[in-house]
Amino acid sequence: MELMDGDAGHVPLMWVSAVLDELVKILGDQKVFVLSVLGIQSSGKSTMLNAMFGLQFAVSAGRCTRGAFMQLVRVSEEMKEELKFDYILIVDTEGLRALELAGTSTRHHDNEIATFVVGLGNLTLINIFGENPAEMQDILQIVVQAFLRMKKVRLNPSCLFVHQNVGDVSAGEKNMEGRRRLQEKLDEMAKLAAKEEEESEAECFSDVIEFNVKEDVYYFAQLWEGSPPMAPPNPSYSRNVQNLKKAIFRKATKSP
């Protein structure tokens, strides 16, 4: 279901509130865990969610998802005991830094989407395409700023970082270096965001949100082995999806 129109210049709070109120009426006192995803355009967000939960979010090159869409997934009876909730509400969003919005107030638009999505989710997946966090500097700042705003209103969401399209996901030494660079960049962005939000307490990213760079960062292989359309799916991608799904459920069991 469309939660937010991609052509809207702002987050339609009345509409979102009405949709969520209706959802609460339908579900009653059943417990819902909200999983949201953020990342740049064409970074594989929708594909990942589809593979993980058997969904049908639209996928293609370019600005495919516009706005925010949500889908409710019922938890099976055998998993309810372990997870302690009845449904997962999955929120897929349009890519940040959309080329179609270049030249307009892209930064403000991205900030609104990030704050909305992070505020809605118990857990947010931050989707990074490739291995270079330096290229993601502005996105990371937007994400850190959104988490800082949650802290100010005493909300405590959690996050996992996903690096898509990584050449060799088994290269431990290389990935350790990638994690170190990501941590440095996040700490740097935390200081910048703290200045913008006039929040002097945040000296590093872990001051903003509980985060362990060794456990909360996942590397994904390329989706295809070779060049589509004739290339077969990469089995490593499926294993990466399963490992991430287990991590999401581990976080979910600790969610208040």
UniProtKB/TrEMBL annotation:
Protein name (database record): Interferon-induced very large GTPase 1-like
High-level lineage: Eukaryota, Metazoa, Chordata, Craniata, Vertebrata
SUPFAM superfamilies given in the database record: P-loop containing nucleoside triphosphate hydrolases (SSF52540)
GO molecular function: GTP binding
Organism: Silurus asotus (Amur catfish)
Domain VLIG-type G stretches: 29-256
Superkingdom, taxonomy of origin: Eukaryota
